[in-house]
Each structure stands twice: as C-alpha cells, then as structure tokens.
Amino acid sequence: MSLFHLFILAVIQGLTEFLPVSSSGHLILLPSLTGAPDQGLAIDVAVHVGTLFAVVLYFWTDVRMALLGCTRLLHGKIDTKGAFLALCLILATIPVIIAGLIIKMTGLDEYLRSVAVIGWMMLIFGVVLYWADMTGNQEKTADHWTIKDAVIMGLAQVLALIPGTSRSGITISAARKLGYGREDGAKLAMLMSIPTILASGVLLSKDVIDQADWALAHDGAIAAVFAFIAALFALTLMMRLLRSISFTPYVIYRIILGIGLILWAYT
C-alpha cells in the first residue's frame, strides 16, 4: 500500500473518529468512491490504535484515575472517584461488546457495509444529534456521571455498530438528552471510546494475526502514527470549539453527505 494511501486512510480515521460524523462510514466509503482497494482489517485496527493513543493522551488525567480505580474494583470496592468512573465505563461498554459479537458471528456486519445504509444513518442520526443538542439541558457535568446514565449511553452506543451512525455522535446525542453540557457530554463520549476501541481491537485481533506479515505490520505502524496525529488535532479542535459553538456544523455536513449518498445509492 502506498504511503499516500496510508496517509489518506489514517487522516480520515483520525479526523472522523471523535467528530460526530462516523469514522467507519468514511473508511467504508473510501474504496467505493475512489476505486482504491479495501484497506483490510489490519489497517483498520492500526488506525484505531492510533486514535486510541490520542484520546488516552488527551484525557490522561481521567484515564489514569480510572486505571487506578480498576485496582479498587478488583478488590470489590467502589470507594474512590476513579473506581466509580471505571465501573461506569465498564457498564457502558458491555452492551456494545455483546451486540458486536452477535453481529460478527451472524455475518450481519457485511450486509451493513453499503452506501445506502451509510447514507440513511448519516441523515437520520444527524437529525437526531441536532434534536438532542437543541432540546437537551446543560445542567449536568462529567463529574456527575451516574450508573444509570452510563448504561443508557452504553445502549445508545450499540447503534454505532451500524456504519454511518457515528459512535461519538450517538453517545453525545444521548448525553445531551440526559442533560449534560456539550463539552461534558463530548468528554464522556470520548472516555467511552477507550474501552470500546480496545474491545473492537481484541475482537478483530485473530483475523488480523491470521493475515499479518512484516510488510502489513510496517504499513500498519505508519498508519497508526498518522491517525494518532490527525486524531489528536481533531479532538483538541472539537473540544475547544464546543466552548463557543453547537454541533450544528457537523449536523449540516451529515445531512448533505447523507442525502448525496442516498441519491447515489439509488440511482
């Protein structure tokens, strides 16, 4: 795979993983729109690893607190802020792991990788994001995350298994309707991405190991670095912009792209 192709894939993944516009949808669309060969699972996993390092670095204080809290959970104690955060993240991740296993085992994932599906999900959940953002209160902060809210956001995250939905978009939508402010809702959604990306990597690891070779590993490492840089840039920009603007620009992009894809798919 050429360096330019790796760069394009990694930048698309990095920029769209945390923006509410669906990274998986864009990665699936790239071969369809450009005629380039599908990048394969190994590169998909590599760029996800790059974005994982970006979100861990950006939210390192919270990640470190949750990691330390895991040791308390292992002893059956939820007596620290970190332990409670770790518990909420675990509970929020369980639904998507179960649903992901079911979809992979049934082969349903292949049927969902179509331009029409991505187009409709872009459009529908773009409208959902706008509705949630415009009607949601801003009374809660990330420090007041509850087990109930974590479970609700985790159930919403399951919808992101449909390409075009956007994992960050649907979890942010849920957070906004639950009353979290834009920046705090986005922060919770980003923290939820860490165990979700890890779970996805583990789920796909066998397939990747079966097809891996040194050349593929080299390409994957390059893609991971590019994705890390792009993701860190996108994450930093979005979190700063949320202090002054809504999610409407992302909604407009989703609606335009969704309508375009639907027209293309049916004509």
Poorly predicted regions are: none
* Content-based structural category: mainly alpha
Largest sheet: none
Q: How much β-strand is present in the residues?
A: under 5%
Series of secondary-structure elements, N-terminal to C-terminal: HHHHHHHHHHHH
Estimate the mean pLDDT confidence. 88
Proportion in helices: over 70%
- Please provide the count of β strands: 0
Radius of gyration: 18 Å
Counting structural domains, the number is 1
Q: Oligomeric form of this entry?
A: single chain
Distance between the termini: 31 Å
Please state the overall shape, judged from the principal axes of the Cα atoms. Answer: globular
Number of helices: 12
Description:
This protein is mainly α. The chain contains 12 helices and no strands. Helix 3 (40-58) runs parallel beside helix 11 (214-241) and helix 7 (115-135) runs parallel beside helix 9. The longest helix is centred in the C-terminal third of the chain and has 30 residues, at 182-211. It starts with a helix and ends with a helix.
Supply the key terms.
12 helices, mainly alpha, 267 residues, globular
What's this, in brief?
The chain has twelve helices and no strands.
